[in-house]
Amino acid sequence: MSQHLPNLNYLDPELLQKLGDLELIAREVVEGLRAGSHRSPLKGFSTEFAHHRQYAPGDAIRDLDWRVYGRTERYYTKLYEAETNFDCHLLMDASSSMTYGSGKVSKLEYSKYLAAALSYLILNQRDSVGLSVFDSEMRAHLPPRSAMSIILQIEKILKEITPTPKTSIAKQLNDIALQIKRRSFVILISDLFSDVGDIMRGLQRLRYGGHNVIVFHTLDPHELKFPFKGTWQFDGLEGEEELITQPERIREDYLTNLNAYLEQLQSGCIGSGVDYTLVETSRPLDSLLSEFLETRSLNMMGPSVGARS
Amino acid sequence: MSFLNPWMLLGGLGIALPILAHLLNRHEVRRTDWAAMHFLNRNVRVRSRQIRLRDLLLLCLRCLALLLLVFALARPIWKNEDSSWLPGEPRAGVVIALDASFSMEHGGGDSRRFDRALEQVNVISEKIQPGDPVTLILLGGEDKVLIRNMAFDRDRFRDLLQSAKVAPVGLDLDRVPKRLKELLDDMEAPKKEVYFITDVQARDWRRSSARFHETLAELRNDAEVFLVPVPGAPANLAVTELNLVSGVLRKGTIARYQATVHNYGEVPVLDVAVQCRVEGVQIDSKRIPVIAAGASETVSLFVPFHNAGSTRITAEITGDLLPSDNVRRVVAVVRDRVSVLCVDGSGGAAGRLIMASLLARGDGAKDEDYVVRSVPWLTLPAEPLEEVDVLIFADVPEVTPEQVVQLSRHVRNGNGLVWFAGPNVKAAAWNERTASGSNPLLPAKLGAPVDSRTSEGAGRPLDPAMPDHSVCLPLQSLPEDLFSETRFLTRLNVEPSSSSFPILSLAGSNAPILLEHSLGRGHVFQFATSAETSWNNMALTPVFPMLMQQIVNYLAGREFEQPRLVGDSLSLSYVEQPDASDAVFDTPSNESIAVPVREHRDQFVAMLENSGEAGFYVARVSVQAPGMPIAVNVDPRESDVTSLSASDLNENLEGADITVVASESELVAAIDASRTGRSSWRYLLITGFILLLLESLFAEFLRKRKRSRSKQAEPIPDNLTGVQDA
Question: Which residues from A are below 8 Å from B when comparing CB atoms?
């Protein structure tokens, strides 16, 4: 892992400084219900005029622009753009498999930085952020709040995370879907080493709840490239039986399996309208976030926006 | 068992490499925690015992192959008879030394000794395995290595053997073992054999030194030594000498040459014809009625000189079994005229005596072409030296430095100088001007006069220090009492220079009386006594005219009149630095050899190091210049072709542990019996490579088996891939 991530303090001033630059981009992207610094892409009932649209049956009569009708004798409806805010739920996988790290930083550590950085970004935009940490059970839950003080609680929870061997993502996603009342942003940070079907069912459950779901799929570079040579003993992190093998001989199979798995995951996410990002833990966090937000900005005009209407 | 390349065994340390690799690999099962266990193919498992067994087997194969290769490259040899069960071949490196001195030509026709020697070489070569190292040396003179450590190839060997020729040189037997040792040391072979094929000339073998026998015995430490004699009949006639006996080499005169024919055989030879040829034209022929066994006979050959210049003269016999020594050659440089100038410092006595001695001739008269004059020493500056061939200084007190330079130049040009001591000579002045520098004019430094009388008060007689010198030759014909009449009362103490040598000395004291050294193309004779009678009675005896005439003949002669022997160096001296940088020597076989001119002790000399042929060479200062012929003869000592009898040879070689084989069948049997060493390195090398091949095939097999197993790996569990229903 590169040196850009400090080890202990998840809200390092230097990192936050870099993230501060991202705020402008984020402002253009995220959406919410509360009037905040974000412009909602939803054209709705607000004060700031956006543009006209020809009247269609079912539109509210009060939105008709009579002045235009007076000039043109055609019915046009006025559309307004409202400033919004939103609730964001960070879901963090704290299972043992997340503790793997080929370099200095494990996937879990990286995820913690990622969660903290995202929290800071969201709070800085005066939106609400909450955090849920799970493995086989819900280990910690912090409801979304927009007060800046919540960042300290988030950091405290992140520091106290103790990984446990088992994960059950689907169940946890279901539980969370039941808990969230408003349409929210749900950001899942996990290595997703579980049944693809279960994962997709949980994500789809969230999507049915009208939530905007973002998945940060964190994987270690060694997990992606499998560069081992010689004879190795692999000890399973979630209680699996150890394996002594010669990785060069099984590398081809491994990469085939992994790529099939990633492909299915990605295509499943696209099919369900879930924003999927593969995160290689060797990447600098700021560049990851920067790229992610830029991609989001471009996709704003795309189907993921419309999917929530 | 021994090793040809024992240092190669160090390569055995290389066995550490596969072992080290094995040990390193064995401990290299590294551990890691792993999250994505579901993606790992659990069929490709490695069990530690399986690894150990497989690796141990491969390790053993590798180590064994490596050891075999190292062992093979160290070239082991089993010399023991007990090791005959081992795969291997009886191999040996062979050095064949072929006597190529001209006595091997004896026999004529097909049965020459050399032809029989070549047959023996063929027999030996039949027993050599292809690829074994072979050396073939032709012994004689400078020795010629025809083949050196060649991997034996029968056809090529035969081709090279065709070029083996007899050289017109003798064999230096004492040098042979040392030369063979050098060749053996230069050869690498599991076992070495030396075959010395020679006609075992009795003359050489009987005179062979103790050192020869020691070195020959030492050869046995390195190799099996076989002596293959090819003896022959002793009958041989040779012209051993051809000398000018009397007469001056001037145009219009007749000189008498004397040819000596020696019968080396064991029976008398009748009616031997000796022919004398001048420039290839027969001008005289003599018959010797009988030459007794082991005896020499001489004939006089009269050679008329019609023209001035170099003349080639040969004396030849025919019908002999050994042609090389049937001819003797000399060159006569015939002058138009000879002029002698005597510079007298004694007041006239010495000059008179010298003139009288030089003019005391058979015909008794002066002739126009032979001028002898005597002048007082003070008139020397006025004399034109260019017309003088021989200058005689008798009791001259001193000379000026300019005169010394003039004299030195005169001698260097090819003229002669004779110097007599005497009571008037100022030794210090002469020493200062003539005996210093790197090339002094006189052969010796002058000292004080010493009394050389015996205790009875009588003078001491002469003793030839160099009896073979042409100046001394006629003295030998004098009766002993006449010769010893010459008595010396006083002589000058002299200190000879390094380049001079005494010709005559005083009997019983070894004090030199006559010294000679060469200067440029000329020579200087120095008497340590006087010409007149105050210090001796030499001028009153028959010795003096003979000596003086011979000295004048010798000094009036020219460079290259003295014949050389094959193998001698031929040198051409220059008076001054020549324009051309190379001199040219034409060999008797009409080959031209350019020889660079070098400066040596202020003299310019071109030297042909080794005259390899018998006949007339021609030396030229440049390609266009006229040539000066040089007669080169074979060494008559080699003409004694008598071979040692088998019993004498065995006696001669007693204690040397050398196998003497008399016939072809004996030779074959001896080779078979001696060649017991077995060399198996090729087999070991092949086995090593086979093992390496097996090891790599086995490793490949294991790798393929593992791969095929991994191909049959169980499929990935559905729960990791089943996203379709999502």
Answer: 96-100, 107, 191, 193, 195-197, 199-201, 204, 220, 223, 228, 230-238, 240, 243-246, 249-250, 253-254, 257-258, 260-261, 264-265, 267-268, 272
The length of chain B in residues reads 726
- Give the mean pLDDT of B307-334: 88
Structure token pair of residue B314: 């040969």
Residue B507, classified by CB atoms within 10 Å of its CB into exposed (0-12), middle (13-18) or buried (19+), is middle
Hey, CA dihedral for B669, B673, B679, B682, is it positive or negative? Answer: positive
Per the CB < 8 A criterion, the answer to whether B259 and B250 are in contact is no
On whether the CB atoms of residues B427 and B492 are closer than 8 A, the answer is: yes
pLDDT of residue B85: 60
Q: How far away is chain B from the Cα of A141, in angstroms, using its nearest Cα?
A: 25
CB pairs under 8 A between A and B: 130
| Residue range B354-389, pLDDT digits in tens | 988 888 765 555 566 778 889 998 888 777 888 888
pLDDT band at B478 (very low <50, low <70, confident <90, very high): confident
Strand partners, B241: B260
Report d(CA B434, CA B676) in Å as an integer. 71
Nearest-by-Cβ selection for A100 from B33, B42, B721 = B33
Express each pLDDT in B161-184 by its tens digit: 888 888 888 888 888 888 899 998
Collapsing DSSP to helix, strand or coil, B264 comes out as coil
Q: Does the pLDDT of residue A213 top 50, yes or no?
A: yes
Looking at chain B, which residue has its C-alpha nearest residue A233? B31
Domains and CATH numbers, chain A: 13-34+86-301 (3.40.50.410), 38-83 (no CATH)
Q: Please check whether residue B228 is in contact with residue B667, taking contact to mean a CB–CB distance below 8 angstroms.
A: yes
pLDDT at A67 exceeding the cut of 50:
yes
Judge whether residue B116 has pLDDT over 80: yes
Distance from chain centroid for Cα B353: 47
